Amino acid sequence: MVTIRGAVLGLGLVLLGPVLAQAEEPTMESLTRIVQTQLFSDDPAGRGGLVEVHDGYKFVQCRHMPHQTAIICEAAGTRGQSWMRHVLTKERRAALRELGFAADRQTGNFIRRWDAPPGPKLLMAFMVHALDVGYGNSGQDTEMQYGWFAAAECPARVTSGNPYGGAVVLLGTKVKNLAEGCRLEPEDEADQKPLPRPPAMPDDAPDLRSRQYKAIAEAVHWVAGGTGPEHHIAIFSWGDFYIQCLKAEDPSMQCEVVSADINPRLKPVLTPAVGRRLKKLGFLEPGYSLNYAQVFPLKAGAADDSAKAVAETLAQAAQQGFGNYAFLPLQVERLTSEPAR
Predict the structure, then answer these.
(1) Where does the record place the region Disordered (predicted)?
(2) 323-335: per-residue pLDDT in tens?
(3) What are the sequence ranges of the domains in the chain?
(4) Which of 26, 216, 283, 335 could pair with 30 as two cysteines, CB 3.0-4.6 Å apart?
(5) Are 341 and 235 in contact (CB under 8 A)?
């Protein structure tokens, strides 16, 4: 995996190779060579070549079959990842159509076939542009992954309902649920038990909220103070509803508010109106993540102030998002996990 920030192509991009070592700053030449190798050259082993750009779970993939000149590009659809409905607005779907994409009945993705593809540099710029206009910019670095897939007209994909659902799977990638064949089946939504009735607002609601804020602030401060390569995680739960925060090596913290795309039984509470309120608090709609996500910067030398600001936002998110379920007993869990390698 390699990171490409704003200097290359005038676009922020993180490049992910098949072997995940350290992030490295690529050059225009290195990017062009990768696209040339994967999409414009035949693999001696007879594998198909693939390049993907993604922003969270939003993706655009282009692939090439050996002994063919055509290149097929696909953009994520709502069949593979139902939460893409939040970002795939009418205007963004129209923008994808203007770029030559059409809805694919077999996979539910958007597809464009290049019988006479542009050069490697222009094709890569096209992919990043399609990701931006089709799904919006999360403000995070875009990532680019490349590798090989078992050459087939209908390659294996990630099954619907999973992160990157509908994406063609690279060889060597560990994927729990694979979909074979030309048609990607939609997610099978099992019957959901209804939520229990929410509690009534207690007489001491202001005091309860104050105690909850204190517990949230203490855990957020713990996450913010984490050092080393481990991931420091705090999970705040009110029954089925939760908010989780994680800090890694970067001076920032990512927090997520559960969405009904994760747990459909929450739909009566987590309505579109709630989504709009969370958006006003700075949370991204599902698409970048499966949940509502926000990255909070942690200012050097001002950890207490940063943690306080995060805690205030999370407390507001619970109050505005969970309704009276936010009066359920708050459970706080602190975890430390090893970094992914």
Answers:
(1) 185-207
(2) 999 999 999 999 9
(3) 2-179, 205-337
(4) 26
(5) no
